[in-house]
Amino acid sequence: MSINVEALRLAERDLPMPDPVTRPYWEALNRGEFLLQRCVTCGQAQYYPRAICSHCAGDVEWFTASGRGAVHTFSIVRMAFAEPFSSLVPYVFAVVELDEGPLVLTNIIGCPIDDVRIGTRVRLEPVKASDEITLPFWVLED
Amino acid sequence: MTRNVAIAGIGLSDYPISPFTPEQHIAQAFQRALADSGLRKEDIDGFACTGDSVPHIEDAVNSAEQLGIHPRYYDGTFTGGSVFELMIQHASAAIAVGECEVALIVYGSDSRSRRKRQNGSKGGYGLVYDPRQASQGPLRVGGPMAFEASYGGGIICSYALAAQRHMYEFGTTSEQLAEIAVATRYNAGFNPSALYRDPITVEDVLNSRMMADPLHQLDCCVVSDAGGAVILTTEERARDLKQQPVHVLAAKSCMTHWQIGQMPSFTTAPVSHVADALFAAAGVTHSDIDVLELYDSFTITVLMQLEGLGFCKKGEGGPFVSDGKLKVGGALPTNTDGGGLSSSHPGMRGIFTIIEAVRQLRGAAGDAQVPDCKLALASGSGGILSSMGATILGKERP
Q: Does B140 touch chain A (CB under 8 A)?
């Protein structure tokens, strides 16, 4: 499966602005690594990164996640109201349930839109979007 | 000291299309609610307002100043379309304990005329763009939205995620969702002001443009201009005013997330967490409710609230709505003014569900009047099924 990075028109998308809490996550993605936080008290994983655990308010630590999951729900966007997305339709807007538990909102790319179903196995596909940001996209498992 | 609270006045500005600014909608709705109630402006000592447009010129502080109101109880809460049910909850509590005597809740929006809503692509709901800024190119996005802003999300495809999951878990169909749009359009036929009044069929909904699977264009609300105002006071004071009081029997709210990617369960409406408490506080049961005014940003919003509020079991919303019971004249008339799906939906519709419930309980709902209407439930939903509020209103206090 090959990803046509040009076709994603990343330079035209709004991009994340890392802050002190989220910077380790974004820096790891630049290395191709997907970090999640885990609570040192209750052990639950969370996405997106936060200052403390959103389950029990405990402290959190980073760990390298598997980058594997399954489609929890999705929509095929057929009508969008601003560029670049109005030129990119139809595309897959989806929520992936990570094998570690948390849900992640993303696009599923690199496959025919009709191949995406709830439950379809997917894996992380980091794509460099700027000098600072590598965006996590997801693709169907091989 | 706790005092019972009632709605003493309501007002709607010129809708669904108007040349007004948001401030003009607010001003006109306020004037009309004041005249409706028989109160004087100087009676108002509680103020609640919020806005949905750039640059938030109708925010509560500015609006209080423009209207010349000097509140000793003030509420500028923002939770999207549910906020007015939260304001009923807050203002009722404030009046009950004597923090204020007469509270005004007011809203105005020019969403349709300004066509500024980013309802489908760039960024996400809650990310406010100055159109001049948007034209300068992509943004760098901080905070939680940094994790969603790059993926071409928007309001329609975000609600579609919930609809898709509901279909997967429970076998809900597009035909069943369409029944909600069909019933609401039927009801709009009774409202001379509704944006769309011509009847539609399930086939019309299914044949309308697919916006974001599984939501068709006719599964989505209209975009309108509108303003609304609600005046609350003590039940005792309301008895001596111009209108028959409409009693606030209970108001509850719950918020489970803001961005769609953080929704804990894509098939659970947040209001489900407070539904039992709502009915218990009102001292009534589901079968007592004569009319429902449910926030209908999309067909799926109505279906999930019917389940969450307990009018049917979770997962059974599809069959529940498929017998026409939501139509005026049906077993559970819902959105009797034509709702957001057919009549009027600026950025935040939640105040209009309250106003239509009051009209029904006063017996003043025109051709859409539900006979012998004694109890109504009005709801709001804000964000992407994120924050919900509901209030039970009564012609009498049971």
A: yes
